Amino acid sequence: MAPATSTERPAAAVASTDTKSAAAQLGHSSEEVTATYYIAKPAQAPDVSDILERLGADRGRRPTRALPNDAQG
């Protein structure tokens, strides 16, 4: 959730280092509410490094012709 109001923006900045102060500034009942909605969580993606490695190994090969059903074709 992106902070929208002038009160929420500074609270989000404070929350990244001090959840207790941010919760007090926003009037939240607990730090858990602040942590849930104001602390940015890193996006996690599945580990697909093996697939990427195989694609990189195929780089020297000639590309195949696009099929008629391809989104590009």
Structure overview:
- It is built from four helices and no strands.
- It has a domain at 1-41.
- With 73 residues, the protein is an all-alpha fold.
- The protein has helices at 8-15, 19-26, 31-38, 49-57.
- Helix 1 (8-15) packs antiparallel against helix 2 (19-26) and helix 2 (19-26) packs across helix 3 (31-38).
Task: Summarize the SSE layout with pairings.
Blueprint: H1 8-15, H2 19-26, H3 31-38, H4 49-57
- Net shape: elongated
Quaternary structure classification: single chain
What's the Cα radius of gyration? 23 Å
**DSSP strand count:** 0
Task: List the helices and strands in order.
Answer: HHHH
Helix/sheet category: mainly alpha
- The CA-CA distance between the termini, in Å, is 38 Å
What percent of the residues sit in helical stretches (DSSP H or I)?
40-55%
Q: Helical stretch count?
A: 4
Which parts are unreliable, with pLDDT below 50 for 5 consecutive residues or more? none
> What is the overall pLDDT average?
74
Proportion of beta-strand residues: under 5%
Q: Mind describing the biggest β-sheet?
A: none
Question: What's this, in brief?
Answer:
The protein is mostly helical and 73 residues long. It contains 4 helices and no strands.
Features:
73 residues; mainly alpha; 45% helix; 0% strand; elongated
